[in-house]
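hey
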């Protein structure tokens, strides 16, 4: 499907980490962006987007909307041919997974797509999903052909009690595909990134969960050694570009694993040396037994089961689909890591 760039596009969670870079790209391409946010009157939260719009050929318009309010996105969606649904909670330490993760992710997706069903102008939805909807633990990779994850795989191991964030992303994406298949007017494409790193456009976004690992690397938490905790890493700027291409490339279809690098915490941390030598960065691998002992004290989400299933296990995702169909190439891991740490230094978080 070929999309008309003269029509406005809607972005949910427009002040978010990934959404900020996506809005920047859309504005630079001259599009009119309908930004759906919780507090459009709060100019501090939209200042970075206003500045982008002022220096771009595109235009931004704000609409008040909340994920859990039925019909909240209907007004913002009017006249739009495209909807980018990026809004979803990303937290790992939660008291009530059902209330804090599952409901916002699933009900939020349901509310947005219910409005899409009521808006004849919408032709395509690009949903920000996650590799978490494909797998729970790095140890699962070796159970698949070539030891790698592909778009055909769905997460079947996360639950309300173990890795509830992954469970929420799985349920939300499944709900989206269920609603898409129940009609034949609008198309759905999902972007499934691994851990998103890189500099935020919104200075306040350094509080995002995406920066927890980077903060721990910079503040000395891993000074005695970093774990070989297998994970995928992708630059936030690449994730935004992937969303844009998923929307405007006519051949885009289905799910897209969006991973720049199959890596682990220790290997990624070494790209920060020697440029940031004066910071207490890890210079050796922390043994698994040590992570087993201290991990749960460093991060409540790092349970012993999580450590067992991820530390020392290689993460491997197949990115041939997004490279071939959307022509994606990914920024070097060193640039992503160094720009991430510099953002925290500039924000005086590290």
């Amino acid at each position: 499907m070929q999309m008309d760039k003269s029509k406005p596009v809607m972005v949910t969670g427009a002040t978010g980490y990934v959404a900020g870079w996506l809005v920047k790209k859309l504005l630079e391409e001259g599009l009119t962006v309908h930004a759906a946010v919780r507090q459009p009157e709060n100019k501090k939260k939209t200042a970075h987007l206003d500045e982008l719009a002022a220096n771009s050929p595109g235009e931004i318009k704000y609409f008040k909307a909340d994920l859990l309010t039925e019909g909240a996105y209907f007004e913002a969606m009017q006249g739009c041919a495209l909807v980018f649904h990026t809004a979803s909670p990303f937290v790992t330490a939660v008291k009530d997974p059902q209330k804090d993760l599952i409901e916002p992710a699933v009900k939020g997706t349901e509310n947005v797509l219910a409005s899409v069903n009521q808006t004849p102008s919408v032709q395509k939805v690009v949903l920000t999903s996650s590799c978490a909807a494909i797998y729970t633990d790095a140890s699962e990779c070796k159970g698949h052909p070539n030891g790698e994850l592909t778009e055909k795989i769905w997460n079947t191991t996360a639950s309300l009690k173990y890795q509830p964030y992954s469970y929420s992303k799985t349920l939300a994406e499944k709900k989206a595909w269920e609603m898409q298949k129940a009609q034949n007017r609008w198309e759905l494409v999902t972007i499934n990134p691994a851990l998103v790193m890189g500099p935020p456009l919104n200075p306040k976004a350094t509080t995002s969960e995406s920066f927890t690992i980077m903060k721990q690397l910079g503040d000395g938490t891993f000074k005695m050694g970093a774990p070989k905790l297998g994970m995928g890493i992708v630059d936030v700027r690449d994730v935004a570009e992937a969303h844009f291409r998923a929307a405007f490339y006519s051949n885009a279809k289905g799910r897209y694993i969006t991973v720049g690098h199959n890596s682990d915490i220790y290997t990624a941390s070494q790209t920060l040396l020697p440029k940031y030598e004066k910071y207490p960065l890890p210079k050796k691998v922390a043994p698994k037994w040590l992570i087993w002992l201290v991990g749960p004290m460093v991060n409540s989400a790092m349970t012993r089961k999580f450590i067992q299933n991820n530390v020392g296990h290689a993460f491997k995702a197949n990115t041939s689909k997004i490279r071939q169909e959307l022509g994606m190439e990914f920024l070097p891991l060193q640039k992503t890591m160094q720009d991430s740490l510099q953002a925290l230094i500039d924000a005086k978080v590290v």
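The chain is about 35% helix and 15% strand. The chain has a mean pLDDT of 94.
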